[in-house]
Amino acid sequence: MKSKLIFLVLSGLFIAGPLRADMASTVAKLKPSVVIVGTYKSTNSPRFALRGTGFVVGKGSTGSGNLVITNAHVLQQPTGKDMEDALVIQIRVDQNELQMRPVTVLEVDKLHDLVLLRFEGPAAPALSMGDSGLVQEGQAIAFMGFPIGGALGFSPVTHRGMISSIAAVALPTASAQQLNQKTIRSLRSGGSFDIFQLDGTAYPGNSGGPLFDPETGEVLGVVNMVFIKGTRESALTHPSGISYAIPSRFVQELLQRSKSN
Known about the structure:
Layout: H1 2-30, E1 34-40, E2 48-57, E3 64-65, E4 67-71, E5 86-94, E6 97-109, E7 114-119, E8 124-125, E9 140-145, E10 157-170, H2 181-188, E11 192-198, E12 210-212, E13 219-224, H3 227-232, E14 243-247, H4 249-260
């Protein structure tokens, strides 16, 4: 009996060890692909202003790329802000050095609050996209970003959690001036889509960061702190600490459209 108990304890140690190592290696693998999205102007103080998080993606099966996904609302300038500020990303080129790169907006998906950017300079490691259609409630997830506007430093922070709910989000009806073919199709289909509700708490600055599988590192969604929260919780007097993510299938559709252009 005693030898059996020792065997079970040792077996538990061998099983638990690789799981912890897998998460550590996943974080290390993702960090070079997670970027800071912000604006830069030499006459500002500070010159760089963090707006949110983004991550590098590739076209097709490539392992590197010059494309970045983030939330569309991350690009919006605050009221009264000088519109001449340059849109940039900061990308990690080694363990201790961040490099600033100018970016160009390739396509904006306002419906799902996503934007595709292209940055200048050498390509960076691209994250792999997972199938968000297979995600289930109760599934373990993790997300990475730069919370609280970089107040904790410009080193990516990782949080763990789970998918607490998969629910539809109803979008506000567009005004007549905003109606176009894509919007009309959306309104005809009900103007809603499924989003992931998380039990982990994201903060301002996490917007646009990758929601990923802790074991494989595959991206399952994009963290969203404003667009979805405002829609889902608009009836609440005191908004909750609930966080949301946009499923990765909408990222894949955005990349597919870009690839065909």
